[in-house]
Queue: 4 jobs
Job 1
Amino acid sequence: MNAISNIWTHPKTSAAGLLIAVVTIAGVLSQQGITLGNAGSGSVVTLAGALATALLGLLARDPSPSPAPAGNSTSRLGAWALVALLLQLPFLGGCSGVTVAQDIVNWTPALESAVAAVDSSAALLAPADAPIFVAATIGFDAASTLLVSQAKAYLANPSATALGQLQAQVVVLQQQVNAATLQAARIVNPASQQHALAAIQAVGAVTAAMLALVQSISSKSAVARMASQSTIKLAAAKPYLDEDKAAGIVAAHYCEPVALARVQVARAELIEEQAGF
């Protein structure tokens, strides 16, 4: 009886719990390919998850008539709202293959811009350091151009063959970024090193997002194959990465708070490391 009476005593918390359950179940069903029918351009499952997340956000933002003490139900509700939002993060799964393909293509202008910035960054480095940077990043143009092309080809025709080519190419660019990061870290001049790492990470942040998207629509065997092709692991380059910069890029792309993007980036890195990248 206490459980039933608590529903009436704490209606806001009870409603939040129900909405979190809806979001969680919707995420699981989406990952299993269960749609329960179409709703506009999406599915009933994704629509239910999105509505539940939105309502949970409204509950968490209800104004309080007085400052709330630390650890009260309102702060706990805000924490659970964040958990529910994390279940719906854009590049961490739960979407259809077509939606993910479009998201990958949506990242391509940012990738092209970041690579163009790399090409112009050598002029900012000390004369002795510029050749090292150029040699480390010389493959970015060709690899990124091919990745953009394959992403668009997969969106136009999401076949197994197109996906396989996309899987291979995103790993190629990811490996080039990791290698370039380690090379740039050897630059002794502090100013040159800072410019070099910042330029490379801009490419790396976009590549990591695209890798996470590709990973989300790939089978376990395909992810294992991709990871086996990743000889320079993320763990080796991670000490030189600026996670705030990566979060800023993700937040700007998805028009979301930087704090949320920071958690998103951290979780994506964890998933990639666990997969063997």
Job 2
Amino acid sequence: MTPRLRTAVFPVAGLGTRFLPATKAVPKEMLTVVDKPVIQYAVEEARAAGIEHFIMVTGRGKAAIEDHFDLAYELEATLRERNKKAALEELERERPKAGAVSFTRQQEPLGLGHAVWCARELVGDEPFAVLLPDMVCEPGCLGQMVEVYNRTGGNLIAVEECDPGETDKYGIVGVGETVGDGFRITSMVEKPKPADAPSNLYINGRYILQPGIFDLLGNQTRGAGNEIQLTDAMLRLAETEAFYGCRYTGRTFDCGTKLGFLAANVALALKRQDLAGPFREELRKLLG
């Protein structure tokens, strides 16, 4: 019987150097796409997929993330006094339940694998999801993954197609036999040349992992960038445990890049009933 997925880890300790000077004093995860910070999109995606425990792996200068998911007494009192019911209801609806969010520190910037390992005591001995907040998925990706995971069990990675000529920008997986709505992953290669790539399916920043990954991350040697790489530990885990792929049918916007961030703002604004019409007209003016 496949263990139920109830916990998700969000690595939010990155410095955001690609968005300086905006991220000098503001966490990159708090940059807004339309009117929500990117971290909120990831949390909402996880909640919609049935996640109950949200673990943030933070670092210095990230207090704004903790405040964002907490009560804002003065703000909410002011909204009540001014009878701003819609705004108040939205804040209450989006706030996680008390005790549902945990925070732990990654004291050194030692890579994604190290950030995930920092959450080990909070996750415990159960499967967990990892969501990279920079990657905004529309519609939510984790819900699709859970449907596949409930049939396959094991470890699951979400993938999307990229241009076959651009595989050297991504982590690429090899495709094995079909299993339910997913497929068995036969290899994982970091940024292969197009001629050497096993496919054009890239890892889009969503994972479901078994707790055995923590022991491997605990003694994982540093890899690319002199950091502890999650992919290196997954490759070791794949020697003893099954890894499956889930073909995500939506679109992922890499909000860690300026181009992806801008594209996400445009795409999600055009999906808003209150913004789509006038915003489309503004775009016509700019492009005309």
Job 3
Amino acid sequence: MDEYRSNILKKSNAEINRLQLLSVFFDEEIIYKIFLRTQVIHQLFVKNDDLEIEKLDLFHLQFTDSVIALLRKIKKSNEKNVALIYDEIDLNEALIDKMAETLNDKNSFVQDKQKQSLKINQSLRRLYDNLSDLSTDFPFSKNINVFSAKYANEYYFDLTSDQLAKLINFEGKNVYSNAYATIERKLMGRLCKFDFRTEFHLGLKSGELIVEIYKFLDNKTFYLFFPGRSLFLLCDLSVFKDIDATNTLSEREKIVQELAYKNDKLKSNAAVLKTAIAKEVQDLLESSYQKISDISFLNHLNNFDVQSNILKEMLKTDLF
């Protein structure tokens, strides 16, 4: 084999290797078919010395080079768009890390709920004693409002002003009052009946105002504590039926969860976008493949300029 022919075959092999790498990257059937067909054409010249080797060089010049250039441009454009997506992912992850540092420990919230329930039960028991013997002792446990101050922004559910007004509305004849608190008569009766055994159920907030909802351990009765007025009333949970009380995620935890979910979607989109090829390009590649698959393709190689020009024009478009 003369050196001229050998050099063209080496050059052809290099073109085929580049095309193979692109077919692996895009993992697209039509690109793999073009790669295989290009190998077949190359082997024709390897096994047939009588074929004009210049035609192989012309084939790569007119077709393979244009296909490779087009695919490389698409690859570069896709990788640029994917990089933008990962920039957004990085920003989200930085925000997740920052918010995670300020999240109250869920275990602390659970433990503090138990402590708050104990404080409320003890305060109500002392309030009962006050009302019974007309004592002037302060009934509320120390730091009883610290719990809400610590957790309201993260764990309390939002309430409209109308819902709040409906919740804390009462008639004077139905309550006991002294200098420290106001409590519904029926509620005090139930507290005595069930030995002041209640637990924190959920927290509500309307602007700066907060309401704590408690539940009797022995039945499904609920009552509220409105610190703003030191008010205790039986309450109907249907007033805020849209609230999912089983959702114990804090507001920040919800945001972190949403950001993590968004990042999962972005990563999935990035994986798809990385190897995406526009329908117009796929159709063009399919058409080109049909042309080079024609059994008489080599005989009309000099007339392949039209297909080559279409590929080159595609390089100038803004599809990618």
Job 4
Amino acid sequence: MNDESHAFPYAQNAPAIVIAVIVLAGAILIAFIAHGMPWPVAYALPALLALCAALLPVSLLIARQWEKAVVLRFGKLRALRGAGLFLIVPFVDTVAAWIDQRIQATEFNAEQALTRDTVPTNIDAILFWQVHDAERAALEIADYRQAILRVAQTSLREMIGSSPLSALLSERKAADLKLKEEIGRKTAEWGVSAVSVEIRDVGIPTQLQDAMSRQAQAEREKAARVILGSAEAEVAHKFLEAAGTYGTNPVALQLRAMNIIYEATKERGSTILIPSSMVDSFNVSGILGMTGAVATPQPSTP
């Protein structure tokens, strides 16, 4: 349960070491000056100062800003100390745990877990959690880090078993929220809060991936055919409207025929030979005369 950075908790306690060195130097100086004086001054006082110097590194401790030290006295909870310098009674008080209260991340996964529609899946996720009650985290459970990991894995498998594959793939945010709430409900008794859960990857068998890919491709092809059919129907409807217009207006039909010929020759620069009978059928003179009659203003009668 101890924080790894406090495997040797006194090694980083520079203030206590400095004070201990100063006290020990004072003891040596007093012993040197008081040499030949009565024994309480010459021996007892330097010995007492040397003992204090030896006990200071294990009495004066430091908890960093994000830490809480769980102090036990004769095996019973004495207090939570930190952040900063604090004193304990040597051989009477012990620091049972250093609790890190920063937000921490734990990776967990579920391999070959069956969804509600019996599809085996491999899911990787990350849990962000924080100790909000250091006393309960130290006293209620032996190893809260391992317990959080096991709870997260169990909750993930439960969620997979109660959800279809389509929901896990398409409703990722809802799955994250559901998993966070479930883990937080279980770990709240230990003084640990689930901050958030993020599902990183949902893996499914290769055969199922191929089948889903073919299904998606078939659906896209179906949609493309439907769109193409709708376009064909709309074009056919427009052709019917055009045929009705051309059937009742021969001049429009002739102009359209001439436009087709023009469009066929303007880009390629080719020459098309048209039989004279086809030209007569266009009735160019009649069309031009009609156009000229429309374009030429008629004189007004007095």
